[in-house]
Amino acid sequence: MPMCLVYLGIMLLVICVWFLAFKRPVYEAVGLSFLVLLTITGSWGNVWTYINDALSTSLLYSMVAFVSMSILLTKTKVIDSCIAIILSILGRITGGAGYAAVIASSFVGALSGSGPGNVMATGAITIPAMKKSGFPAHLAANVESNASYMGNMIPPSSNIVAALGAYVALFPDNEISQGEFWIILWGISIWFIIQRLAMVWSFCKYYKVKPMSKEELPSFKETIRVGWQGMLLPVIIILPFVLDYFFKDTFFTARLGEDGAKALSSSILLFVGGIAAIYAIIIAKDKKVVSPKGLAKMFADGVKTIAPAIGVCVFGYMIGSLFGELNVAEELGAIIQSWNFGRLGMVLAICVITCIMGMVIPGSSIVVIFGPMFITSLASAGVSPILAAAMLPCICGVMCGITPPLGLGMYAGMTLAESDFSKTFKNNLWWVAAQFVLQVVILMGWLPIMGL
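Below the sequence we write its predicted C-alpha cells.
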C-alpha cells in the first residue's frame, strides 16, 4: 500500500477516535494526529521546522483578525438589527421567513465564518419566525443550518484565507490580488444563494407555507430607523476589495508604483477587519459593552471561540508542512490522476472525497492539508486552477458543515427548532444532494462565474 494512504489513514483514524468516540474538541484531535504522525514517521527532529512553517503563515493572522471581528459584531448586536431589516422586507411574502433566513444567514455567516455559531445567532430569530408561518420544525432547522454554512464560502470567511494560501503556494508567479480572488468567490456564492432560495420555494410549495402574520412582522420603518447603520457593514468590508479589483492596475499602480499597489493588495485582509470592528464600536447602542473594560471582558470570554478555530488551523498547517516533506499530497494526487478520469470523472471523484472527509474532518483542516492536492488534481483534468481554489471553501467547508456526523449545523438547528432527528436527517439529504450537484456543475464550468 502506498505510504501516503497509510499516513492519511492514520490521521483519519486518530481524528475519528478522538473526536467522535471520545467526544474531545476538534483541535485536540488534529493536534494529537500530528504527534502520532511525528512518532510513526520518525520526524521529531524537524518538529520545530513544522511549527515555524505554521506560525510563519501570514494568512493565519488574518484568520485571527476576522474571528475576533466576528465576536465583536455578535456581542454588540449590530447583526441583530440587520436580520430584523431583512425579515421586515421578506417576511411579507409567502415563505418569506425562509428567504429571510437564507439572506440573513449568508450575510452573518460571511462575517462570522462560524457555522454552528451563525445558526445559534440568526436561528434564534429566523427559526421561530419560520415555524410561526407554517414551516415544519425539521424544515426550519435545515433551512437555517444550510444557509448558515454558506458563510464558510462567502468572503470574508477565514476558510477563504486558507484557500488563497493553497493557490499561492502552488502558483507563486501567477499573481492574483485578494480583491480578484474575492470577486470570484462572490460570483460562486451567488449561485449557491440562488440554489438555497429555490430550495426554500420548492419546500414552501410542498408544505403550503404562508407569509408571516402582520402581528409577527417587524416594522420596516422602525427597523430601518434602529438598524440602518448596521447595513453599511457589508459596504465597509467589501469596498476595499472591489476597489482593489477594478483599480489596482490603474489608479493604485499609478500613484503607489507596482510594488506599492501589490503591498496594498496583500495587506487588505489585515486592516479591513479592524476597520469593520472600529465601525461596530462606534455604532454600538450599548456603550458599556464597547468600553475598555467591556472589550477586555468580551475578548477574554471570546478566547474560547478564537482558540479552537485557530488551533485547528495551526495544527493543520503543521500537518501540511509534515506531509509536504513526506510528499503525501503529491503521491495522493498522482494516485488520483492515475485513475485516468476525464474532467467530469475527476470533478465527481474530488467532490465525493471531500464529502466523505467532511463527515469526520473540519473543513478548514481539509483545505489547509489537502487543498493544494485537490487544486493540482482538478487542474490536471482541465479545471481552471483559480476556480478550483475558489471552490475549496465550498466543497470542504460547506459540505463538512451540512453532512452528518460532523454536520454540526444540523444539530444546532435541531436544538433551536426542537425537531425530530429522523425527519431532520432525511430532509437534510435533499440539501446535501443539491449542494453536491451544484458543486459539480460549477467546477465543470457550466455556469458563468463573475470574475473569471
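Residues 236 and 412 are 30 Å apart (CA to CA).
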